[in-house]
TrEMBL record:
This is Peptidase. It comes from the Bacteria. Residues 33-61 are annotated as: Disordered.
Amino acid sequence: MCAAVLVAGCASTPPVAVEGRATSMLFNPERVGGLPVADGPSGPRPDAPRPVGEVDNTDGGPEDRLALLALNDIEEFWRTNYAKYLPGEFEPVRDLVSYDSDDPDGPWVCLSDLSGLVNALYCPLSHSVAWDRGVLVPTAMRYFGEMGVVGVLAHEYGHALQYMSELADRQTEVLVKEQQADCFAGVYLRYVAAGDSERFALTTGTSLNRVLGGLIYLRDPVEAEGGGDAHGSALDRVSAFQMGFAGGADQCAAIDSAEIRKRQGDLPKQLTYDAYGDPVLDSAIDEDTLATLMRVLNSIYQPAEAPALSTAPSACGTAQPASYCPDTNTIHVEMAALQAIGEPKNEEEDRVLVQGDNTALSVVTSRYALAVQRERGVDLDTPVAALRTACLTGVAQGQMTEEGGLDFVLSPGDADEAVAGLLTNGVVASDVNGTPAPAGFTRILAYRLGLSSSIDECFQRFS
């Protein structure tokens, strides 16, 4: 699921000077939160100390050993750093509970029967953390790696921090509590990525992409769009994590309803809420849909020479699922591959990151964004070009609103589909050769910037 899908392309046209500004550290394709982007081993260190402590209802298996080691490390980090950022006294979580969601006779936690609950949770009533060793942990390990499990537990420990510091109570809006916890998880994982943990290692390329994927996937349903039980869209949750990873716990403590509204800024309203509970509005991926999309993109980007769309074999390589040939100014689509990534899939039912029509349509839009860049005479085969592509894709999608009066209107969940694609294959944030910007962290930042920006602003930011 997390393997990169690369598309073939052609050499870029010669660059010409473009007025702009230097790429800031935040948007540097070679760095993440001030750390260099790198791939390598992630997970428990070979020389990590043995996990210590008691786990209620444990089966003594590898899933519980990993969870206990993670909670040892998370507790040690916050015991050392709590007083620097948060009020009150640090109080370690009292009880750790393992359960199997497939077992109807498992333990009750927080006055609730946990059978069937594929998740992890913090219970303020007992100051305890519980996790599902039967389904959740194996699923997270398979798709998001061992550090995906660590990230989930770091999020739950973030809830414990809220209560011990009195940043939140049972009346606090769920959206605020969830984003604070995402942010606190980012603070801890930055410590691991910096190489300061004696128990775990986390590299900032593919491994961090997978942790972010787990953050999006492993969340609870909401009861109503935008209501008090909303947990936040993928954009909201990743941005909160990024605040902690690139900033610090003081930024997490400052998250409240007003901060979240400010951070959402000028994002289209329908992109700031969860897709859960809303009807799935997926269009068929076929030639008629793509023709409509091209007309809409012509209207938004208004190039002097609009690119052509072809489903014929690409003259500059195979189109998997789409590629752009600057020599002929043509977007080539391999329809079967595009339909495969646009097939609607639900996280809960299919055990994958959410995908749907916008997973596919955002890929085609990103190839059109390369045509816009060709017209401006910039390089098309660099990491900066890859991020510029993501930004320009965001520009187009940010205008696909009811207010825009276009034939395409994004619905709740469409941005989540694009963000999931940015993490799992990266095509939307790739250059003309299909090479993605290495860090999903930065790919999402560039796409999010575009949603509330203009074409010129993308060229200025990524020059």
